[in-house]
Q: What sequence folds into this?
């Protein structure tokens, strides 16, 4: 295989890092994943997989229907619960997953392909290997050093590798915060396997079922002046969430009444990295292009990155060009698409939060008309995003059985 003998270190055992580990290992690389946590687990969060992400999972031999449940529709409603538009998705590759289940499947897949996952490995510094006749070096908090042939930084918003390549980040608070929670389902919850988005002045709430309908995911966004940290680990008082959405319909109130523990994070705008590679290193996922949660593409773009990086490296080495050419090709392929997706997500935010009543009424009326006349045209505006299969139909592995996640569902 083209990458036989290449020693690659992947920093971060999240979705992008584990997908990259499997993709690279299946092409022959000797992959080590460095994760600072003591255990691989994702607590209390759902995510949506769209066809572009599902194609990568299938290419890696991870059947998305074994990880999550099919998503039948995207349903937009106003805060009173009145439908603005319901866009049926059909059997076209949309899934609703618990993040813990996806992480468990990817970790199992990475190990099955031969990748090693090392926990409690906090990376403190990275030398990118950009100097002549030098290779990359990773310095870990326990004083250990690694000198792999290539380093992939999939370590998220506060990436150590991104800092090494670009210097200190200066994200800007958007004036929006988001809560996330998972609650048990209850009688009276919607029976349809669909993502519901309730729109109100300066705020919106998304909910959808998880694990066959046993639980419901909640992501709620509010515009406000009060700053909040750029981190998923910050806990908040559930009463603050309930107060923010007090004027919404009974269905939303029923969901929020069940919230016992909730996390809050401030939405900060990070620029798409102008440079994704340096020396023998490359950024991937949120380390390269942090996304806002208005188009549900963070996980999907990270999966695409993982596949394209592995494919570009494999092709360049097979053609005798060396990994540097592959890294340059990876950036040229991924950077424009990530930028376009993030710009589209940013535009979605204001559409959900219209405050001026006449404008809000006109916008929702236009959606209702579109829903009656041409609902598929509304979905079709994102064909450029959902319709791309970066694998080209390749399958690197037969489908693997998916292990049961150990992740907590109701934090």
A:
């Amino acid at each position: 295989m083209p990458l036989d003998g290449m020693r690659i270190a992947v920093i971060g055992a999240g979705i992008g890092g584990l997908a990259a580990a499997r993709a690279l290992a299946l092409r022959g690389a000797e992959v080590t994943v460095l994760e600072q946590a003591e255990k691989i687990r994702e607590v209390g969060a759902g995510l949506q997989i769209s066809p572009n992400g599902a194609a990568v999972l299938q290419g890696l031999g991870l059947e998305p229907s074994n990880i999550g449940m099919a998503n039948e529709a995207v349903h937009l409603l106003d805060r009173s619960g009145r439908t603005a538009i319901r866009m049926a998705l059909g059997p076209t590759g949309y899934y609703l997953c618990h993040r813990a289940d996806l992480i468990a499947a990817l970790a199992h897949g990475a190990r099955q392909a031969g990748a090693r996952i090392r926990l409690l490995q906090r990376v403190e510094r990275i030398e990118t290997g950009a100097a002549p006749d030098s290779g990359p070096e990773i310095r870990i908090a326990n004083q250990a050093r690694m000198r792999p042939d290539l380093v992939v930084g999939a370590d998220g918003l506060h990436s150590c590798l991104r800092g090494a390549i670009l210097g200190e980040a200066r994200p800007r608070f958007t004036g929006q915060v988001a809560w996330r929670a998972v609650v048990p389902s209850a009688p009276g919850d919607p029976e349809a396997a669909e993502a519901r988005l309730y729109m109100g002045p300066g705020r919106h709430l998304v909910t959808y079922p998880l694990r066959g309908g046993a639980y419901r995911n909640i992501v709620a966004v509010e515009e406000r002046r009060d700053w909040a940290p750029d981190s998923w680990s910050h806990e908040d008082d559930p009463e603050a969430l309930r107060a923010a959405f007090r004027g919404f319909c009974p269905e939303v109130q029923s969901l929020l009444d069940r919230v016992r523990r909730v996390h809050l994070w401030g939405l900060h705008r990070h620029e798409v990295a102008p440079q994704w590679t340096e020396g023998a290193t490359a950024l991937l996922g949120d380390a390269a292009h942090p996304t806002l949660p208005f188009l549900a593409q963070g996980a999907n773009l990270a999966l695409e990155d993982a596949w394209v990086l592995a494919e570009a490296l494999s092709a360049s080495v097979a053609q005798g060009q060396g990994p540097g050419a592959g890294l340059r090709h990876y950036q040229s392929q991924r950077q424009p698409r990530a930028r376009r997706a993030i710009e589209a997500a940013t535009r979605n935010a204001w559409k959900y939060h219209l405050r001026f009543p006449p404008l809000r009424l006109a916008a929702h009326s236009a959606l209702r008309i579109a829903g009656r006349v041409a609902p598929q045209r509304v979905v079709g505006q994102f064909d450029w995003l959902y319709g791309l299969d970066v694998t080209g139909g390749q399958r690197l592995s037969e489908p693997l059985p998916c292990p049961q996640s150990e992740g907590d569902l109701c934090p």
